[in-house]
Design goal:
- The structure is a single chain.
- The chain contains four helices and eleven strands.
- The strands form two sheets. Strands 1-2-3-7-6 form a five-stranded mixed β-barrel. It has a two-stranded antiparallel sheet with strand order 4-5.
- Strand 1 and strand 2 form a beta hairpin.
Length: 197
Amino acid sequence: MKKRIFYFFGFSLLLTLFFKATSFSQCMLYPVTMQQRVTDADIVIEASVAYRQTYMNAQQDMVYTSTVLNVHKVFKGNLTNVQIELITEGGEYLNTKVVVEPSSNIENLESGIFFLKQSALRFNGSTINSGLQFEAFASAQSIFNYLKDGSVTSPYFSYNSKEELYNAIISITQYNFIEITLTFLLLKLHFTCWCHQ
């Protein structure tokens, strides 16, 4: 009987610690409205992940992940580049792994809508201009993930389709998105060359 009580209390203690740790990390995430996301972001883009790499900061006390994004649409911001860099805290570098909570959950992301701010962090090994390095200012709420069923999700918000999310963003910005295509880039290059003649 005493053995059963010991196991019961031991199991109860483990469950309590688990739920306490889980609820602590969840408490740190508070709802950010769509209006706030759009207003507070320097850029709002639709993009897909090109590649990722991790690095250690100069002080050797934090691991960062650099995710290079291929930009497809620009909803807000003066951005005409095909690629930008999203820098997030955490990742695995050599024998060091850092998990940051709440995180932006970008490690499994393929494509989505990103609400980003210019980053003060710099990754010296980057091939991307430092003016094109951004961070997710609202953690996981800075990203809407495209799901296989066509819906779009982020903490506290979800939409049935990309088009619904597009319309929600456009209703706040009051202008349509710019599509970054090869034709757009060729026109930009042609215009730039023509202006310098």
